[in-house]
Amino acid sequence: MTDKKADAALKDPKNWREATRLIHGGTLRSQYGETSEALFLTQGFVYETAEAAEARFNGQDPGFVYSRYSNPTVAMFEERMCLLEGAEAGRATASGMAAVSAALLGQVKAGDHVVAARALFGSCLYVVEELLPRFGVASTLVDGADLAQWDAAARPETKVFFLESPTNPGLEVYDIKAISDIAHRHGARLVVDNVFASPIFQKPLQLGADCTVYSTTKHIDGQGRCLGGIILSSREFIDTHIHNFLRQTGPALSPFNAWVMLKSLETLPLRVNHQAASAARIADTLAEHPNVTRLIYPGRPDHPQAALIRRQMTGGGTIVTFEVPGGKAGAFAVSNALSIIKISNNLGDAKSIITHPATTTHQRLTPEARAKMGISDGLLRLSVGLEDPDDLIADLSHALAALAQPGLAAE
Fold it and tell me: From CA 46, how far away is CA 52, in angstroms rounded?
């Protein structure tokens, strides 16, 4: 390789390794040559002439028009996420649910059909079960682990398959490659919500998915500050199904939030790998605890889809789900006895967070629907943070001792 070729290769972000991409990828420097990415907190842009404005609006002159459409800071975030995910293009949104909604609604019209895994976050289920049918888009829910159900549910009018893997909160893992093959055989596209795995441990586009969505509120911000979302896919998919939908409906990501997330991406591998290592230790400890009746963690060999996880993911993730005796009373007793771990409904945060899904994230579902998803009244979802894992284990051990109170463990 000549010196010129070597120089060009080093300057191409696609040749960088992941950690380097997350620090330098997509950077646009202004005339001032700032070290940190610039924050373009503006809603509009100025043109030298009326002719220049016309050219910008009709697409003859590439550039920024209005921050609802695109913005330099947001564009940097989008490009960096594309480099991380291995996507040709991406569009950021105001929240994770805005990304999910746009990824689905941007592809369908009245008369179309969507097949989705039953085990979805409550708001995603609302979009699939209630919102889409209002506009004439039928939907069918399937057991995501049963490939035959995906195949059987597809119709000639099916346009989209949708799933999250690992699931929330049951941490069930689905075969993305096999499901994408089924979708493509039926002329549909597969959208994967990858928030629980994070882009550090799983890359759905490399497994055959057509589109990946994230709530960047979670691991990507990772410090409980900003809402955001992103849709990542091929250039054709983004241009055809997403760009104009977002432009006209307006769920734009704030440039300030994009700037915060750009800074967060610089530490994403350090944070998520540390959290996952702690989660694995905590899962092993909880699995042996007498007051834990069920333990689910994708990094353990006793996970029902352990073989698939080894093929599909590079780590177990930051979430541990466990069940305690005593139903809701037992789960509440454990949650209320915690000192370091906080009760909240976020995840992927630097702070460890515990959630009772039956009364929070999935409370709108019927008891029967929750039972089908494996969400019992005693189930707790733990998002492991950056604290010392020994302190977290001590906190959980102390809280689980609350179940020794008369009547709780026996209920």
Answer: 10
pLDDT mean over 206-216: 98
Mean predicted confidence (pLDDT) in 216-244: 97
* Structural contact between residues 73 and 260, judged by C-beta atoms closer than 8 angstroms: no
Average pLDDT over residues 160-177: 97
**β pairing state of 89-93 and 229-233:** antiparallel
- Tens digit of each residue's pLDDT (9 = 90 or more) over 249-264: 999 999 999 999 999 9
Helix (H) or strand (E) holding 317: none
166 preceded by cis ω (within 30°)?
yes
Alpha helical stretches, state H, 288-381: 306-312, 327-337, 367-372
Instruction: Answer positive or negative: Cα dihedral of 394, 400, 401, 402.
Output: positive
In order, the DSSP letters of 102-133 are HHHHTT--TT-EEEEES---HHHHHIIIIIHH
Of 347, 266, 253, give the one whose Cα is nearest residue 37: 266
Cα 7 off chain centre by: 35
The two three-digit tokens of residue 157, written as one number = 């009018």
Answer yes or no: is pLDDT of 406 > 90.
no
Q: Name the segment(s) of the chain with CATH classification 3.40.640.10.
A: 15-265
CATH number, span 15-265? 3.40.640.10
Superfamily of domain 269-404: Aspartate Aminotransferase, domain 1 (3.90.1150.10)
Residues 195/215, Cβ–Cβ less than 8 Å: yes
Q: What is the mean pLDDT of residues 332-356?
A: 97
Q: ω into residue 169 within 30 of 0, thus cis?
A: yes
For residue 293, give the 3-state DSSP assignment. Answer: coil
**Using 50, 70 and 90 to split pLDDT, how confident is the model at 210?**
very high
Report how far residue 297's alpha carbon sits from residue 373's, in angstroms, rounded to the nearest whole number: 16
